[in-house]
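#data-curation
PF: Archiving a pair of folding outputs for the training set. Convention for this channel: one message per protein, sequence first, structure tokens after, nothing in between. First:
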Amino acid sequence: MIIKIRPSDTSFLWGCKRCFWLKYKHGVINESFPAGGLTRNLATVQANQVRDQRIEKLIPSIGCCGEFHSEEKNVASEPIPVNSEHTFFTGGRYDALWEMDDDSVACIDLKSTTAARFDPAAQERKKTKLAETYGWQCNAYAFALKHPASESFAAEAKPEAPRGTFGNMLGGGSRKVSHIGLLFYQIDPLSEDTYKTIRDYAPVAINEKGFIAWVQEAADIIALDEAPEPRMGIGSGGNLIKSGSCEDCLYLERFSMKFGVTEQLPDHGIPPVFGELLG
């Protein structure tokens, strides 16, 4: 079986191994928290601001020069070398790409975030946290750019990617990726009458070996016969708690309760109503 790992699933979905397993093992996709209109509008503004901008002007801290190349193009990788009965690859649509003066490329993801306290120490902590949260997502795009899918693999895998994942990059060849990172926008808390954003950049370390190791861990999770435990939080008194720790799992529980179902499938650990949908 050929399995595509979406770059975006390496961050928040991976935060709960049960939700990750449900999606990739059984195709249960939770749409309980769709992006709102404001988020979509911010994304449009961000794309308009970066388009055709030289990278040294947009991100002075990057310390190199490059010309805007493209936005929102699909990329797909060759098979990722992991030990599994399945074949894994990664593919998705990057936000923005720059052609650097040294013939390498910089692949930058655009994000909007909640406001931090705008002092240098707090801002650095926020940048570190963003890089940790989205690090494998950025590295997934870097892997696909460096190791693009061949035409033969694309033909084999395309039924698993019906939205044209392979359409734009075939024939483009391997690209050296020199920079990955997050260009993020925060709403200025000092702006009282209008929405004003502050832009900053969080670099991400390129770590191909680490990304492959992450895919191996993901493959091991998908291979499990039973669902992993939901993400657990810390309750009062330092006790581990499950309920409410993962909003997606809580959503599934409420969905089941709405249909009068309170028990879990013993062999999979998912609500029976979903088991019926999955056949």
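PF: Second:
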Amino acid sequence: MFKYRFLHIWLIGLIFLSSIIQNNQLLAQQVNMSFEHYTSIDGLPNETIHDIYQDSKGFLWFCTDNGLCKFDGYNFTPIQTSKNDINSINFSRPTKIIEDNHKRLWIATNEGLAVYNLITEQFIDIKNNRQEITPSHHIAIIDLLYDKNHNLWIATHNKLFKLSTSELDKIDLKNIKYKSYGKVNADNNTLSTNNIFSLLEDSKGEMWVGTNDGRINCYDPAKDRFTSLEIDIPEFKNSETFYRFYEENADGLWLMTWGKGLVYWNRQSNIFSQYKYIPNQ
């Protein structure tokens, strides 16, 4: 295993979240941390980082505004792009990475999906399959989730898509079939909207979907259907976007918004609490 030093952006995010969730513990003890700052001078393709992922081999992967790169604990290696080489990634802005149980990295980008085989260290050409996601194959992937049942979920601003375990077991990924989920008018068992922003699988095995209509959606795998929950905060009605989820425990869920702070949902009491930034406080 490699000894890694972490980017300051990632650590600051953890410190902020910990200060909310474990405030009493942090106040009760002294925390000493050291930071190292990595920039493009050190080999990063770009200094805007969208995602960090550690694969099963121990390597760190960084999604930047100027492509993908791998970190071995000492050096950053940018992944070269070429539209003419099927074994390279041909997207400019990767935003999310996850790994499946076949040692393949699934990469969300601003133009679709890319897949990297960790064993062969090559990208898998799925450009023909990507056209099944939407009529246009230039579709931004907003979020990815690999659930406990080994299904891959793909969030877009058009619909939600699933690649089942049986499809992912196709090692060469030829002729894979996606199942789509979206809003169906007058059907309460579908998504509340097609505009998807975030995905989370909680400790109970339930999948939560964040949208832009002031609701969160819960997927029931046994019944293969959704139920939507309206956030009981007046200014969120029909309009708020939930960009990320964080499960504190089985009874508590945090929701990240754009410009309206954090929301904590106590699932046991079904009470929503909003936390906003107040200047000088």
